[in-house]
Description:
- The structure is a single chain.
- Helix content is about 35%, strand content about 20%.
- The protein has helices at about 25-45, 50-55, 75-100, 130-140, 145-150, 165-170, 210, 215-225; strands at about 10-15, 55-60, 65-70, 105-115, 160-165, 185-190, 195-200, 240, 245, 255, 260.
- A seven-stranded mixed beta sheet has the order 2-3-1-4-5-7-6, with helices on both faces. A two-stranded parallel ribbon has the order 8-10. Strands 9-11 form a two-stranded parallel sheet.
- α1 packs antiparallel against α3 (about 75-100).
- The termini are far apart.
- This is EspG family protein.
Amino acid sequence: MSVEELPPYRALLVVDTKGFGSNPAATQAVVSAAIPDVLSQAFTRAGLREVWETALFPHGTGDGYGLGFDPRFLPAVVTRFFDELQAVLAERDARLRSAARSVRLRMRASLNVGPILEPAPGTTSAAAIGSAVITTHRLLDADPVRSVLERSDPDQTFLAVALSQRVFEDVLASEYAKLPATKVVPADVAIKEYRGTIYLYVPNPSGDLLRHGAGGYEEELAVARSKIEPTAPGSTTNVISGTVSGSAFQIGQVHGNVNHG
């Protein structure tokens, strides 16, 4: 009886850029070309040049980029890479906007790990397949990840990161990464066939994120407000205690002596 082999476990990083489609064609070409360069610089600054140079199935998506790597690098990627990517994006954004004020380079990133069936050597396709790959791409489209860039200052916050449940448990909760688990915010997401919890990391929070955090505070407010029972229209309850002489006007709750004369 033959036994199928489990594909090797790989870490998978995918990024895409906010508002890419709203740019004119010439600008899209500039932004698309900048994406791999920005990632390369961030890996180098994080001391992870080896991850970039030995990347598995690297592939551009026009408005983004994806690559796989050995899971042993996950603690270092979580600890150092995203902070460096935020810094590199801020620098590149300033350069792009000096040439054209409408151009922005802000990213969403997702990081996952799992069994991935890699492309066969010599094939033209660079994309790997497997549920872990699909999930990694789904995380980029989750509302909480998109909301981070919508609710933050576009001149300060250039990166929103979604870590999968598996990455959180194996890397952060197990304390292999030096990034404290308290710096990420859990969020339940449902997008297409995916249901699960992601962990948001924002290297440089700003704007509304500083007031309400990176989680779904709108939902929390809605739940809190629903628990407040409004007074039924037309109903008035007055409580008057003590000695009353003359006329008593209905003005709400009155305790003590009320005298009119």
